[in-house]
Amino acid sequence: MPEPTRIVLLRHGQTPLSIDRRYSGRADVALTETGREQAARAAARLANWPVSAIISSPLQRTRATAEPLAAATGLPVTVDERLIETDFGEWEGLTFAEAARRDPELHRAWVGDAGAVPPGGESFAATAERVTDARASIVAEHPGQTVVVVSHVTPIKSMLRDAMRVGPELLYGLHLDLASVSLVEYFGADRSVGRLVNDTSHLRSYPLD
To answer: Exposed, middle or buried: residue 159 (CB in 10 Å: 0-12, 13-18, 19+)?
Structure first.
């Protein structure tokens, strides 16, 4: 059995939109002070891992979460556009309840159908397709290495779903905390496992959010 490619999935830290649990897709919001502290704590934890590469979504909240780890390891942050969050279209910045009131039938379908598309946005199925493509590139380019991917809720869930070979139900039944760490392993193109999901042990002083 070859050494696996280990992909460490780090969700970005807190932003003003995450405080109010608002849809935050392509809006390029910054981290809060708490978010920056969360990023520092995640970096302190992961700096001791044998990290070979750091890859981030292009948005500033993910790049800012990646920067403390880059500083600790001396590794550059590579940006991959395919790791960006789902485009929530006209629901961007709304709460769950506000989007449900605005488009009740579509929103009801969207919370159970990965093919449903928010007005002017992107489906979870489309997100998963580009994330799968990004994962294939990572595995091909970093065989037997540990790669930290700093991304968002939907891309991380999509990669967990891909690694564990489960259905779209995981998108709706799994909670991911801010600055949480998950881990998947790929043994070439044919075998993969999930090793860690939503670990926040490095954030013990923060309440669930």
So the answer is: buried
Burial of 58 (0-12, 13-18, 19+ CB in 10 A): middle
Residues (pLDDT < 50) of the chain are 208-209
Number of domains in the chain: 1
What is the C-alpha separation between 154 and 19, in angstroms, rounded? 18
Q: Is residue 154 part of a domain?
A: no
Catalytic one of 12, 107, 152, 202: 12
Q: Is the separation of the CB atoms in 21 and 178 below 8 Å?
A: no
Residue 206 resides in a domain: no
* 28 found inside a domain: yes
Whether 74 is covered by a domain: the verdict is yes
Polymer length in residues for the chain: 209
| Residue 52: strand, helix, or coil | strand
Domain that holds residue 65: 5-147+166-199
Whether residue 12 lies in the annotated active site: yes
What type of residue is 115?
Answer: G
The CATH number of residue 107's host domain is 3.40.50.1240
Concerning whether 85 is annotated as a catalytic residue, the answer is: yes
Find, among 9, 13, 12, 30, the residue nearest to 134 by Cα: 9
pLDDT in tens, 200-209: 999 976 554 4
Catalytic residue among 37, 67, 85, 92: 85
